[in-house]
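A favour, since you know our structure tokens better than I do. Go ahead and set the record down below.
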Amino acid sequence: MNPAGLTSCPVCGARGATEVRASHLYCRTCSAYTLFPAPDAERVEQASERYQERMAESDRGFDWRLFFLDLLLGGQGAVEVLGVRDSAFEGAAASRGYDLHSAAAGSGRRALIAWDLLDYDPAPAATLRECRQRMGEEDLLLIRVRDRGADGARQQVPEQRPWGCLNYFEQSTLETIVTEVFGQVPWIVQSPGPEGEMLVVVIDRRRRVVPGGRRVLLIAHPDAFGDIDDAPGPRLRIAKTIVGLRERGWIADLAITAHPHCEGYDLAHLYHHAWRSQDGLAQATRVLYAGIPLVVSAIYMELSESNFAVDVLPRIFQAWPEEEREALLASLARGELTSRGSDQPCRIPVAEPVLEAQRALFDLADHLIGLSLSEIRTIAHRLGVHRPFTIVPNCADTSLFTRGCRERFVERYGVDDFVISVGHLEPRKNQLMLLYALADTGLPLVIVGAANEITRDYQDLCRYYAPAGTLFISQLAQHELADAFAAARVHALPSWNEGASLASIEAAMSGCRIVVGDRAGEWEYYRGDAFYCSPASPASIRQAVLMAWNDEDDARARRLCERFAAEHSFEAHVTATEEAYGSVLSGTCQPALAEGAQR
């Protein structure tokens, strides 16, 4: 007789469903492994404390706790940490406005944090029930545990792994327990960790999803979640899409691992990383193996012209004397420049392995989501891929960017009524040409964006050529950016290419006049209400910015603001995304772009 069969599972509490496997208690109900017999309580407590302290170091770049607090509590509410205190996290949470000293029930919305705690908890189900009893009907519980179901862990018995915990969870284990205890299906994130893959579990009592809904796994590249304070737009769009889908009854989860496990979902939605196509293809093959439909947000940019610009612009602006620089810029504007054996009409092609990865990825898709029809046409023309598609325009936070505070920005930075340009400082965004074009106009300029290690020299050139008095700001939080747009008159981003610039959308929502490049799908967004320029021509950029600056048609900015608030909100984005999913699952996909239409 198996003595374990008389033992309740410490994870889910089931009786009569356990058996001993390799010195561990395995539960046939929830698939959890637990050390058997369990070590003494003092040893477990000491191991748990060491584990939590060690794992805390992995949260210094991107902290899921801060991300979900900001996303779901919005800077207001109390936070209570269960287990070992993490001073770095608590300090960061306090700086964002969260109260870590008044977390008692009844003190408004609050979050309980059980981070790296359940791995060594002798009774996880009992701990979750205790949390449930302490939580209000609008509170939040955040959990992180190791993922036993990840590749490399799934095939091994627990003691063969280099990390030893008391409990080993799979995603299905956590979903089963949480659904039973809380009566709702949690939001689960498959995430890389320092010593193996992790599962982040979000239990939001305000937004409850009941079992039985359609299941979708959204898949993104880890780079989109690399730094908590950098480039929040793309990851916020993904997260807000999940929130919106869950509010509509979808069981929507997120994976940012190299090898997402897709079993149990009705379909997967992969966000292509424009600079990491090979990684996206590897993720897509996992969906293929799972046998479920694949939707791909293409986020595709044809980079041959911007590759040429990245190569030549720094050298043009380092040219001396001034006459030579002006001659090179004139050739660039005419499309006749030659550099290092590459001429401007032919540009610098994208590397063949990247093209093959993009072609294979989009060809695997059952359905493409495009940010514009121009993007879908470019995929057809450049890659020869014709798949069913839906156009889902880029989106921004209407509640934030229609309510910026001009006075707050002016008080802090001392500048009002200016031209602003928001984006990473890099040749593709073309801030250097913008600064050069406006050198003697007298227009006040604010440049918001940071360089990375690769573009430090470009940043130095931007500062060198910037008109006197130009204000450089490396980073603004989302609410600070809304204030900046409220204080600005014109937003100018003459990029060489864009999927659909989030900064320009946010600026349009805020009431700015808009200047954009003419290379991609900008016309589909702004129509006749923006000012267009050639990114290759300082004269064209200058003319567009001056026209926007001197524009007296206030109705133009109001039209943009109202239309973008209606058509480019998160709600509109989720609706269009849900329609794309529905067409895939029902088999009523939009026909692929006809080959003749690509011309």
Q: What stands out?
A: The chain is about 40% helix and 15% strand. Confidence is low (pLDDT under 50) at residues 152-163, 594-599. The two ends are 74 Å apart (CA to CA).
